[in-house]
Amino acid sequence: AEFFSSVYEMTKVFGYEQKMLLHMQKFLADNQEKLDFLKARLREFENERNEAREWGAAYFDSPLNKYLLNKRLTVDWQRVENLMETSTGEKALNRLKKLRNREIMPNKGELNGAIDGLLRLQYVYRLEAKDIARGILDGVDYGNQLNSELCVDIAKLALRDQHPRLAHSWLIEANDRLAEGEKDKELKPQILALLVQAKAELKDFRGLNDTYQELIKIQPASEEHAKNYESFLKSLGENALLNDSKPILEHAPIPEEGEPVGEFQAFSLTCSGHWRLTPKEQRHLRCGYVTETHPFLWIAPLKAEELFQDPLLVLYHDVIYQSEIDVIRELTKNKLTRATITGINEAVVSNVRTSQFSFIPATMHKVLATIDQRVADMTNMNMKYAEDHQFANYGIGGHYGQHMDWFHQTAIDAGLVTSPEMGNRIATVLFYLSDVAQGGGTAFPQLKQLLKPKKYAAAFWHNLHASGVGDVRTQHGACPIIAGSKWVQNRWIRENDQSDRRPCEIWDDSLVTYDQILELNKQNEAASKKVEQNEYSE
Ligand SMILES: O=C(O)CCC(=O)C(=O)O
Ligand SMILES: [Fe+2]
Questions:
Q1: Which protein residue's CA is at the shortest distance from atom 9 of ligand 1?
Q2: Is the predicted pLDDT of residue 415 greater than 80, yes or no?
Q3: What does the angle CA 399 – CA 404 – CA 406 come to, to the nearest 5 degrees?
Q4: Spatial contact of 4 and 114, defined as CB atoms under 8 Å apart
Q5: Alpha-carbon distance 463 to 471, whole Å?
Q6: CATH topology of domain 263-505
Q7: How high is the ipTM of this complex?
Q8: Where are the domains of the chain?
Q9: For ligand 1, mutation pick of 400, 402, 425 (most atoms within 8 Å of CB)
């Protein structure tokens, strides 16, 4: 059902839960009625016995009493037994079960998916477990509390997904949140055992030892713990620095200028706003009205905001209307499916892209054709070779990791690209069909740009160099949603028939220095001379 990847699905499920509540109420009412009846019988029987006791031995002298006792022990008790035997509220229970077994309902795997989403939010936005457990997400208080058991569940997944820092912070939180009751007494050794594991991965050997000692104090007989500890000591070998104590930070420090940074890390730093352009770097960027591309624009100019010049990245404001969005919502109703990414041999469902999407051809509705005319005005491109309109909805925690929109040759060769004859994706127009309450921006790590979704706006960028080579600087992704629901529309424009719109060049404009371009020209000249010579020699 993949319900966690879309708020749209989540509202449906939420509606079903309302019905489940009603069935549970019915179940309770039926059972209450039964219990009330049984209680009344119990009191009746007790009264009769008390009366008998008052009579003493004389009780059995009365033939009437004999009869009453017999009647009770046969018919009345039989009735009670029968009633006790029947399962009450079965109908309500079956209805409840049926609802929960619906396709759309979340399953255990999706519970993990929801925790994954939460961990992603924590990692990307550098949130603290302490705050999340109190219901505070990036400064906004949602007022819910996570108990110790839930914190342990989250920690387990964090450990499994190689986030020992996050696991560590969730375990500390779980420990702080232990309550008095029996249930939480069982949790304590579990928490300590997991802490030992996390501390081992974080190489906090001193802390590990201390935690282990605490663990065997409350669970001395556990062979499993002892075995884990043994094998851990062995793996450390000679160099076990058991006195090494390390303060454990919940998040890795922000990398310094020039330090190597992983791609997902760079994407995350852009999402969280830690990577951004300085005012000086942005000084040459302009905002303005665009009127040149179509005479109609003299009446209704486009509002353009330049975000980057090379590669070109522009944000257009107010380029789609509520009436159009209403049509789109109607067109995509019940058509969304879990998004996939292009894998090695096939499209695959992946945690890298958790959203729901649908492709709709422009011929489906005249509104889509109108939008395309506007896209042509915005981009000065020929829309004849554009893909179908793609609509996507992201739920809480939903995201799309860093990627390039253009196709790698390997994907084309493997036959994974639809209509490869239309060429590569020369440009993208990404419409924002909703605002997003918190998070959910579009991040371009290489350009240090974070676009906050703004309803009715659209981002436009070139994916390819003028030579047709894919431009790696256009790498981007959808940051995870903290709160709200995000709707976007993608227009992917292909290379075909654009030569009069964006003339191609033989050099690759990723070669930023002029010297490099001259060098490439020289090579090209030499190569073409060689071709000429070959032609003459034939
Ligand atoms: O939703 C976003 O912000 C970006 C989506 C995206 O990059 C894509 O669908 O290719
Ligand atoms: Fe994209």
A1: 490
A2: yes
A3: 130
A4: yes
A5: 6
A6: Jelly Rolls (2.60.120)
A7: 0.99
A8: 3-100, 127-239, 263-505, 506-538
A9: 400
